[in-house]
Design brief:
globular; 316 residues; alpha+beta
């Protein structure tokens, strides 16, 4: 019997919703008022969508990564060489003018290379920091393939800020100081070069002042006169006598090349001279091999921890 009152209560509750429906249907104008709470729901939804703004930041990260990609140093072509003897020699060609052949031999790093085709020489720059334009490495490319390991061939000691890649046999035909056409250039530059130019009536040149294509006798006479005036007046400048030798022509080509490399034919083969971009130093040379130990390239590693530290100590 105590259960009956709850049943009667349930009947009352069922009757109450019916009037509510009628009341809701009577004033049609009140419907917009009923929509006000609904208007708040989009506000809640928009607030909930705010985290979606975080994915919008992802394109910014991708844009940064994409922008960083072009900063990777490009591979540049310096030139090409041939080695009919099958023996490649790499060393500071400037040493030829100061060392006899016997003393020069230990300075030459050599290795076997293909003799039946031209070998392209490429380089990759550091591409970042204060030495961005310096070479990271320069390579003599032997074959296609990915590098999996390296074998050190030796170290190239550099005293004249340049290296040469040439057929070892071509060294017997190299004319380092002998003019090939009987002519020579005389160039001088430095703090007091304008004073010397005025005294000698020397024309302006790209490197300072001097004369081009002089007869050897005239060129030697100009050098002697310049050195005497330099000593008498305590002038600070450099005087350079440049006979038109193999060395002269390779250097001249390298000076006008954006890659700092110049080549020519010597003894029936093509050679290449290039500036290290780091100046003097000791640079390791490696034979890079693929997964099956086949030679891929000869790599001259110019950017090293030692070279960077040496340059920093000089420029600090």
């Amino acid at each position: 019997m105590a259960k009956k009152p709850p049943a009667s209560k349930s009947k009352k509750t069922t009757k109450k919703p019916a009037p509510k429906k009628v009341a809701a249907n009577k004033p049609a104008a009140k419907k917009p008022a009923a929509k006000k709470p609904a208007a708040k729901k989009p506000a809640v939804k928009s607030a909930a969508k705010k985290p979606a703004a975080k994915p919008a930041a992802k394109p910014k990260r991708e844009a940064v990564e994409t922008a960083a990609a072009p900063k990777r140093p490009a591979i540049e072509t310096l030139g090409s060489i041939t080695c009919p003897s099958g023996k490649l020699a790499i060393f500071d060609i400037g040493l030829v003018g100061f060392l006899p052949r016997g003393a020069l031999e230990p300075q030459i790093v050599r290795t076997d290379v293909p003799r039946d085709r031209e070998l392209t020489i490429t380089g990759s720059r550091v591409g970042r920091g204060r030495f961005a334009d310096c070479w990271d490495h320069v390579s003599v490319n032997l074959a296609d393939g990915d590098v999996h390991q390296s074998k050190k061939l030796g170290d190239a000691g550099v005293d004249f800020a340049r290296l040469a890649c040439l057929d070892l046999a071509a060294l017997d035909h190299w004319k380092h100081e002998d003019s090939l056409d009987g002519l020579a250039d005389v160039v001088f530059w430095g703090r007091d070069d304008a004073a010397l130019a005025k005294a000698l009536k020397a024309p302006k040149s790209k490197e300072g002042y001097g004369w081009r294509d002089l007869d050897l006798m005239d060129a030697e006479s100009k050098v002697m006169e310049a050195e005497i005036l330099k000593a008498e007046n305590d002038w600070m400048l450099n005087v350079d006598f440049r006979p038109h030798s193999h060395h002269f022509h390779a250097l001249a080509a390298a000076r006008v090349n954006p890659a700092g490399a110049g080549g020519l034919e010597v003894g029936g083969s093509k050679m290449l001279l290039f500036f290290t971009s780091w100046g003097d130093g000791v640079f390791p040379i490696y034979l890079d091999l693929d997964a099956e130990d086949r030679p891929v390239r000869v790599r001259i590693q110019l950017s090293t921890a030692e070279s960077n530290a040496a340059i920093d100590s000089v420029n600090s």
